[in-house]
Input
Amino acid sequence: MLETFLSAPIPQERLRAELDRAIAKLVARTDRAAEGLAPTQLFWRPPTGGWSVAEVFEHLVLANESYLVRVRALLSAAAPPAAPPGRWRASLAGGLLVRSFASRRRFPVPRLYRPGPAPRAHVLAAFAGTLRELARLMESAAPLDWRRVRTTSPVARIVRINLGDCFVIVVRHAERHFRQIERLRVAWQAARLSGTSAGT
Output
């Protein structure tokens, strides 16, 4: 579990291997969702309010892209390492953010991550594309020390995080929202069985 990596330094290569496995699982789940969700289910919003599945994926694309931009910039500017990477540890801000993803509590969504009036076309494929790029960037970043390469949060420039934080945040944030998507699928099925505005 990635949470165990937040309390003590761990080998960077171990973190990368764990993230690679998590990304592969997320891509597979996205592919299955693309095959298994009818348009009615994809765009259905619960009667109590909240996003549709498509809007959740749009939110994830927006959030992922904000981190990918930073990672690309870090990789283009990073100097060759003087020594092989050692052990990685989350920054204070990065660790707190990742821990918050395990909670079912709802948090305010930053403006830049709010879905627009309509999700983009092929939003699930776009999301899977951001994950595949993340995996490629992790491979390119393997020689760097992820703990020492630092940037700022896309949401607040005053918040400092490291390169490894960026990778972990994207993965754990996506996993949090897949739990939301599963709840939406259950709610849609319940609404359909009860005949309350779930479409066909």
Summary: The domain at 2-194 is CATH 1.20.120.450 (Four Helix Bundle (Hemerythrin (Met), subunit A)). The chain has six helices and four strands. The beta strands are 10-11, 87-88, 150-152, 160-162. The chain has one domain: 2-194.
